[in-house]
Design goal:
The complex is a heterotrimer. Chain A is mainly alpha-helical. Helices cover 71% and strands 1% of the residues of chain A. The relative contact order of chain A is 0.21. Chain B is mainly alpha-helical. A two-stranded antiparallel sheet of chain B has the order 1-2. The C terminus of chain B is likely disordered. In chain C, 32% of the residues lie in helices and 24% in strands. In chain C, α11 crosses α12, α12 crosses α13 and α13 packs parallel to α14. Classes of the chains: A mainly alpha, B mainly alpha, C alpha/beta. Chains A and B meet through α3, α4, α10, α12 and α13 of A and β1, α6, α11 and α13 of B.
């Protein structure tokens, strides 16, 4: 494997958690709910998956635990913003603070432990194609799953009745309620889906990307995932593109640090964050405002009954 | 099972205060449950977290020391949040304030520069924080970029700048390669209020900020402008209040106060720059601001209460071997309880069996 | 005055003792109502009489506090709109339940049960459009459609489910006179096919055109069920309002002089993604007169208001002159200082902050005047101003200084209009002064506006209520897709001519269309 190939492989690995978390958040936001707690749900996913994987020595159980943790966190968020019609921004921040704290508690006994890498799944024949063969057809299962998930989310939103209902609710919850669409129920499931995806993204971080647990290991990826949804104008296909651009930026700055160009490492470490700001800025300059944003995004829903 | 919410029209001040207290008690019960899950005694934890710090003079001083930066930052956030603008990057503004103020301290280090150093450092701290806060505000007003994400991203950038400085150009050459600056001269040190005490003049700044803010928010047109912008943005525009000017103003104010908190902490408490100069004050201040219901006096009380969890958390780490992360988790739970309590005040909540409606 | 159609057999739907209580307020108080199969039944009443509450109960949107609904003689519980539709009810709301970003077909499909796929919706849509003359393009996004076309979506949604009872809530409020006539034809046809229709309105003419039975509500109670064709307009109005409605005095001497407002060649791009551009608007309002601007909703009224008030700035100062001063690039505050005052359409959230007390709400337009000094609020002065508005404009408040949202629509509108008039402005620009306001308040507001003009101010009223403009305006123009027709004395307009302008099919600038 050439260094070039190796870099491309790591880009895929770095992009996948961003992609998964963004897809989850995209579905949540399309239903009209802004969950700023992605970072917290991701941290919980990472901690719980790692703890479970080490304890039971099972990657499968680890992933399941990560998704479950993300889902439970999301359920807590749903209780606040749906049940109590609490401020969504505040609730999302609370979820992040709680998630970062709790993940520290859960992960503490596992600091220093390591997991073995997961074997890639080789698609026979296709993986023999030079360069792109290994890149596209000899990845771990999650990478394929994330691509399939992108397609499924796109099909679900644009091609199914249930997706139409979800988009309608996100677009205008007052109209949706007047038509008798189940605003609360759909949003509840959309929030849980977002949580499960964030949990899965966290699990991928801990079990595949780093293969160890350290506090604060999500390092703002949850927030970048949120920015990606805006950047992608709430379209799954663009989330895929955006996640890979950001994954590439992250990996390249790491390699640049290793290569010691004489640029301070902190400057390179800042690249993903500055890039996020620039991406949001460019998008706003081009379109004037956030295009594609669901009409009811972030507004609390209180029907008149 | 389903929820029903009806807006309450008669929420009284008493109810709001009561809701905050109820939220706090609920958060304690939940935290106690978590501690019990971890196999520890919630009673012992309550003793270490709350009772011991409150019965020990050293801890009481420490309480003020820890409450000071949070109160300063949260007061600034109250300006933003009242106007429904989401500055969640106070942590970064705090760091940049500390960095810019410290620049002067390091420049004058070892010289016989006099009394003017400290006031100028404080001013630089305010300016640094305000400028860092104005970046997301400018991006929002000029280009419509979401301020939540940009202000947060700038926290990471600020921390990396600090990290670079203390590991690079500002590192103490005689510091055995530790990533930290030289210790500040006395002229660059914020003195304690009482000679023997640990509470520095930052506490006085916080007190002044509380009083001034109480007047500004409660009695002035500017305060009404923020309230109107937050509660009814179209009405605010109709009243002739430019939303852009409001955005820039509140981000400058909150950034400035966060910067003041940062430079006060570094020059009055830490005495030098190091890679970490905050246990997350900038984020915790969000909880403080909500817990204090965006009211200056409320924030003052809330900052003391939350400071208690920091001090309790530190001693619990030593005495009960409870990890420090518990404190952060508790703060998350507390914020959730406060938000839920808010809803209880704003809406009447009724549980109804599904389909049993008539 | 009893209805001449005796109930034959079992009515399709029967409401018995329907009551809805909101705190101390009885929105519906023991309402009885029955609708026969194939009947067009009118529900008449003033704003706030409880019509909307009643139909929302019937459609399962809100739960009644007490009472019974019988469908073909059997008691039923209608827990949600889905259940209502399953029974055979269809409803066209006054506020459309549409999704701007979705296509027409998607908007229809989402309201139907799951067996409807997008392609069947498309086929059926074409069929229904043909049968009832409801032309719609399945793939257009809703935000590109006119109000009339949007209403068609709502009607098609209902018709696709073969309803037994179709409920329409104030359907003509957004239509041109011609579009309204078209709607009536469709309704007649449905009724002939056996579909019952419950027609909610406060417009007598329409009800007499369509219905043979009308139930009249007042203050949450049924006051009578009558044959509207057999009763005079005055009788019905008296039943609706309780007391005979007075006429507005507009007979005071009327000698307009001096241009208080001149708008010349004002153009503006649309504000948002789906806004309406303003195109070369010219308008003059003179001291002492009321200028009316008619038009169907969404034709640039709110954009024109924003441009005149200074909430949006023109690119040339000369585009708008107030009292002779070029002010197109001045903010709203500066224009107020020139003697202008403004009342936007939306009360809650635009002209008033719902959760703020009335005294605080005076600060919104008085901020530069007597209620503040060097940046500090003079709360006592604000309270005084609020009190004097409450007294002079007969604002009924539940307590001394309540939150704005606690006032009824009519009382809040009296307050916000009073807040501006009490400043004795030289120029007052009002958008929809009596929208959703009860008859008594509407009369008081119209009189106050006319009086202000007669005392020497210029008053510009933007309104979708043609009757209102014919009553109070001295001169009138019609806005259509961001362009303004010529301004003519009110006597030279007919409803038909206005209707043609609203549709944008009036002939040239030539003479007035004589009818």
């Amino acid at each position: 494997m050439t260094i070039f190939e190796a870099i491309l492989l790591t880009i895929v690995t770095a992009s996948t958690p961003l992609l998964i978390a963004s897809l989850g958040e995209l579905v949540t936001e399309r239903s009209g709910v802004l969950n700023l707690g992605v970072e917290g749900m991701m941290a919980m996913g990472a901690a719980c998956s790692f703890a479970a994987a080490v304890t039971f020595d099972s990657t499968f159980l680890g992933v399941a635990a990560g998704m479950l943790a993300g889902t439970l966190m999301a359920a807590l968020f749903a209780l606040l913003v749906l049940g109590f019609a609490a401020n969504q921004t505040g609730s999302g921040l609370a979820l992040t603070i709680l998630g970062l704290g709790l993940s520290g508690l859960i992960g503490a006994p596992f600091v220093g432990a390591r997991r073995d890498p997961i074997a890639p799944v080789d698609i026979p024949g296709l993986s023999d194609i030079p360069v792109i063969g290994r890149l596209f057809f000899e990845q771990d299962l999650f990478v394929y799953a994330s691509i399939v998930l992108t397609i499924l989310v796109g099909l679900y939103l644009m091609r199914t009745r249930s997706g139409l209902t979800l988009r309608s609710i996100g677009e205008n919850h007052t109209s949706a309620n007047a038509l008798g669409l189940p605003v609360w129920r759909v949003r509840f499931w959309a929030i849980l889906f977002g949580g499960a995806c964030s949990g899965l993204a966290g699990a991928y971080l801990a079990l595949v990307y780093t293969r160890f647990w350290s506090p604060g290991m999500t390092a703002g990826r949850g927030w970048i995932a949120l920015a990606l949804v805006v950047f992608a104008a709430w379209r799954p296909g663009w989330v895929l593109v955006g996640a890979y651009i950001f994954g590439a930026a992250t990996v390249l700055q790491l390699h640049a640090q290793a290569a010691q160009f004489g640029v301070p490492s902190q400057v390179l470490s800042a690249v993903p964050y500055v890039a996020t700001i620039l991406a949001l800025l460019l998008l706003s300059i081009r379109h004037g405002r956030a295009i594609g944003a669901p009409g009811s995004l972030g507004a609390p829903f209180v029907p008149d009954r | 099972m389903r929820f029903e919410l009806t807006p309450r029209t008669n929420a009284s001040t008493m109810m709001r205060v009561f809701a905050s207290v109820a939220a706090f008690i609920t958060a304690f019960l939940i935290a106690g449950f978590v501690i019990w899950l971890m196999g520890r005694s919630p009673i012992a934890a309550f003793d270490v977290y709350v009772l011991q710090p409150l019965s020990d003079p050293w801890s009481l001083q420490e309480l003020l020391v820890k409450a000071t930066p949070m109160a300063l930052i949260a007061i600034g956030l109250a300006y933003c949040f009242r106007a429904n603008l989401w500055n969640i990057g106070a942590e970064g503004q705090y760091v940049i304030g500390a960095v810019l103020g410290s620049w002067l301290a390091l420049r004058t280090n070892g010289t016989d520069a006099g009394f003017w150093v400290l006031p100028l450092m404080l001013v630089l701290g305010i300016i640094g924080g305000a400028l860092w806060g104005l970046i997301p505000a400018f991006l929002k007003t000029r280009f419509g970029v979401n301020e939540i994400l940009t202000s947060l991203m700038l926290v990471y950038v600020a921390q990396l700048i600090l990290d670079y400085l203390v590991r690079g150009p500002w590192r103490d050459p005689k510091g055995f390669n530790f990533p930290q600056s030289v210790t500040f001269d006395p002229a660059a040190t914020l003195p304690p209020i009482l000679e023997s005490g640990r509470v520095h003049y930052g506490a006085v700044f916080a007190a002044i900020a509380v009083l001034v803010t109480a007047v500004v928010l409660g009695r002035t047109l500017f305060g009404y402008r923020l309230k109107l912008t937050g509660d009814a943005p179209r009405a605010a525009r109709f009243a002739g209040f430019s939303s852009k000017a409001t955005t820039l103003a509140v981000f400058a104010i909150s950034g400035g106060l966060a910067g003041l908190a940062g430079i006060s902490e570094v020059s009055g408490q830490i005495g030098q720059l190091q890679p970490s100069i905050s246990p997350g004050y900038g984020f915790t201040a969000i909880t403080v601001a909500f817990l204090g219901r965006l009211n200056p006096i409320g924030i003052l009380v809330a900052s003391l209460v939350v400071a208690l969890t920091f001090i309790g958390g530190e001693s619990a780490q030593i005495l009960l071997k409870l990890p420090l992360d518990l404190t952060q988790a508790f703060q998350g739970i507390l914020l959730m309880c406060v938000l839920a309590a808010d809803a209880m005040v704003s809406y009447r909540i009724r549980f109804a069996a599904r389909g049993g409606g008539k | 005055m009893k209805a001449d159609v005796p109930p034959s057999g079992t009515p399709l739907v029967e409401l018995k003792g329907i009551t809805k209580r909101y705190g101390d307020l009885l929105a519906n108080d023991g309402i009885d109502l029955s609708i026969e199969a194939g009947e067009i039944h009118a529900l008449l009443g003033e704003n706030g009489a409880g019509k909307s509450t009643l139909v929302k109960i019937l459609y399962g949107v809100i739960e009644p506090s007490a009472g019974e609904i019988r469908w073909e003689g059997h008691p039923v519980t209608i827990g949600s709109p889905v259940e209502a539709r399953a029974l055979g009810l269809g409803m066209v709301f006054q506020h459309f339940s549409l999704f701007d970003e979705l296509s027409v077909a998607e908007n229809i499909a989402v309201a139907l049960s799951h067996e409807w796929s997008l392609s069947t919706v498309r086929d059926k849509l074409a069929e229904i459009s043909q049968t009832y003359g409801l032309a719609l393009d399945a793939d257009r996004a809703v935000w590109t459609l006119s109000a009339g076309e949007r209403q068609r979506i709502e009607i098609v949604r209902c018709l696709l489910q073969n309803p037994r009872l179709l409920i329409l809530d104030e359907p003509t409020s957004v239509l041109t006179p011609q579009e309204a006539e078209h709607l009536f034809t469709t309704l007649d046809r449905l009724s002939a096919e056996g579909c019952s229709i419950l027609y909610i309105s406060h417009k007598l003419e329409e009800v007499r055109r369509l219905c043979r039975r009308a139930t009249i509500l007042r203050a949450g109670r049924v006051v009578a069920t009558i044959d509207p064709r057999a009763s005079s307009a005055r009788e019905i109005a008296a039943l609706m309002v309780g007391t005979a409605v007075g006429e507005i005095r507009t007979d005071a001497p009327h000698h307009p002089q001096g241009e208080t407002l001149r708008v010349s060649h004002l153009s503006m791009p649309p504000a948002g993604l789906h806004g309406q551009a303003l195109r070369d608007i010219n308008l003059v309002a003179r001291a002492g007169e009321v200028v009316g601007i008619a038009g169907v909703a969404g034709n640039g009224q709110s954009e024109l208001f924003a441009a005149l008030s200074g909430e949006r700035l023109a690119d040339r100062a000369e585009a708008i002159a107030i009292n002779g001063k070029p002010s197109g690039t001045m903010g709203i505050d500066a224009r107020r200082r020139l003697g202008a005052a403004f009342v936007p359409e939306e009360r809650l959230g635009h002209s008033a902050a719902p959760t703020h007390r009335l005294s605080e709400n005076t600060l919104i337009s008085h901020a530069s005047a007597e209620v503040s000094r060097s940046g500090f609020i003079l709360m006592n002065a604000a309270k005084r101003v609020a009190r004097s508005i409450v007294q002079s404009f007969d604002v009924r408040t539940p307590e001394g200084d309540p939150q704005a949202r606690k006032l009824s629509g009519g009382n809040l509108q009296k307050f916000v209009i009073g807040r501006e008039i009490i400043r004795r402005p030289k120029l007052l620009i009002v958008d929809q002064p009596t929208w959703g306001v009860d008859a008594g308040a509407a009369r008081l507001i119209r009189q106050a506006l006319v009086d202000l003009a007669r005392e020497g101010s210029a008053v510009v009223i933007v309104s979708q209520d043609l009757d209102e403009l014919f009553e109070v305006a001295d001169r009138m123009a019609v806005i259509h897709q961001g362009t303004l027709s010529s301004l003519r004395p009110i006597g030279e307009w007919t409803k038909e001519a206005v209707g043609l302008e609203m549709l944008g099919v009036a002939q040239g600038q030539g003479g007035v269309h004589a009818v």
